[in-house]
Structures are given as C-alpha cells and as structure tokens.
C-alpha cells in the first residue's frame, strides 16, 4: 500500500521533526543524555527552543521518537498486515508488513546506532521507548484477532503472537547493535522469525 502524498506544510513538519530527532540522537551519543539540553539540540538543528517544544515535550522524546508520524506508520503496518493474502501465515504477514519501516534502520545506520546506544545507556529512555508503543498494542492485537478469526478476549493467540514477534524484533535489533550495524537488520529479523516458525530448535538439533 503506497504512502499517501503529503502537502508542503506536512512535509516541512516531518522534516523539522527528523532534523531535531537526528540532532538529539547525535548529541546524546557524543556527550551523554545528562550533558545535552533542549537549547543545545535546538541550536544545533537551527531552530528555537520554542519550536523544539512544538514537536517534543522533552529531550528524551526527541531521542526516542524517530518520526513525527509514528501513529500513522503503525496504522499503515496494521493495514498492510490485514491486506496480505490469506494464504500467508499471520506471523509472516505481520513481519512482511513491518519490513518497510524496519528497513529504515539499515538505511540510517549511524542514527540508529546512536539511538540504541542512548537507550542502552539510559534506563529512562528505555522506559520511554516502551511507553511510546503502548497505544499501538490493543489495535494490533485486534487486527491479529480479525485476521485469524479469533476472539482477542477469549483466545491467547493474538496477544501471544504480538509479544513473540515483538521479541523477535528486539532480538534482531539487539544483535544488529552488538555487531555495530554491519549486518542487515532486515535479514536478522527474517532469521529470527524463521527460527520462531520452526519452533525455535536448539542449535545442533539437540532435543530435551
């Protein structure tokens, strides 16, 4: 599903958000979170602190939230997932729907290495990253339930699938970060999902 065309004002909004986000990540990666202020980020991005606060409530949010249209991106992932042909399994359909956004990690390696370093070094940023995705959980579970024909309140599968695939995403990103972004994040995600779909066999085929 193609991304809808954006007007000039909307494009400017997204560009300013991206400039502030990438600047915040760079400065925090260089100096540490406690050594960077909103004024530092604003000056480096060429805007006023007042403009900064039009986009972010805090410097922590500027580090964590990569895109101004985060909610819209989440909705597009759900729409792609629901539009995938029925013969594709729900886990594979969900991962395929994620891929366009996940490719942003590979395409913006230095930014994401800096963001993940900042989150790794600052527990408050980790908590903010988790909270940022809170509002997408219920709609995604509902979408999985709709595609699989299950009742999200009566059946465990929709919630379990989201949690499991979320774990695969986190594992792929962590492995990518540990290897300094020199391996493909998309390929790592595919590998993680293939292992899950195979029943997470132990390396070497050992059985318990």
TrEMBL record:
<keyword id="KW-0804">Transcription</keyword>
<dbReference type="InterPro" id="IPR023772">
    <property type="entry name" value="DNA-bd_HTH_TetR-type_CS"/>
</dbReference>
<protein>
    <submittedName>
        <fullName>TetR family transcriptional regulator</fullName>
    </submittedName>
</protein>
<keyword id="KW-0238">DNA-binding</keyword>
<feature type="domain" description="HTH tetR-type">
    <location>
        <begin position="14"/>
        <end position="74"/>
    </location>
</feature>
<dbReference type="InterPro" id="IPR001647">
    <property type="entry name" value="HTH_TetR"/>
</dbReference>
<dbReference type="InterPro" id="IPR009057">
    <property type="entry name" value="Homeodomain-like_sf"/>
</dbReference>
<feature type="DNA-binding region" description="H-T-H motif">
    <location>
        <begin position="37"/>
        <end position="56"/>
    </location>
</feature>
<dbReference type="InterPro" id="IPR041347">
    <property type="entry name" value="MftR_C"/>
</dbReference>
<dbReference type="Pfam" id="PF17754">
    <property type="entry name" value="TetR_C_14"/>
</dbReference>
<dbReference type="Pfam" id="PF00440">
    <property type="entry name" value="TetR_N"/>
</dbReference>
<keyword id="KW-0805">Transcription regulation</keyword>
<dbReference type="InterPro" id="IPR050109">
    <property type="entry name" value="HTH-type_TetR-like_transc_reg"/>
</dbReference>
């Amino acid at each position: 599903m193609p991304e809808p065309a954006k007007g000039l004002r909307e494009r400017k909004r997204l560009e300013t958000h991206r400039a502030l986000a990438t600047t915040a990540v760079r400065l925090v990666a260089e100096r540490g979170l406690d050594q960077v202020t909103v004024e530092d980020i604003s000056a480096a991005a060429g805007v006023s602190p007042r403009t900064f606060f039009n986009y972010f409530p805090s410097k922590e949010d500027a580090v964590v939230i990569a895109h101004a249209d985060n909610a819209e991106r989440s909705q597009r992932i759900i729409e792609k997932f629901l539009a995938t042909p029925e013969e594709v399994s729900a886990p594979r359909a969900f991962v395929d729907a994620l891929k366009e956004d996940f490719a942003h990690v590979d395409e913006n390696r230095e930014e994401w290495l800096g963001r993940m370093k900042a989150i790794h070094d600052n527990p408050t940023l980790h908590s903010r990253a988790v909270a940022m995705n809170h509002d997408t959980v219920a709609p995604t579970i509902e979408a999985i339930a709709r595609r699989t024909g299950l009742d999200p309140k009566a059946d465990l599968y929709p919630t379990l699938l989201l949690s499991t695939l979320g774990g695969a995403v986190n594992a792929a990103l962590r492995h990518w970060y540990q290897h300094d972004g020199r391996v493909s994040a998309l390929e790592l995600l595919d590998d993680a999902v293939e292992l899950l779909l195979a029943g997470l066999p132990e390396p070497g085929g050992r059985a318990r």
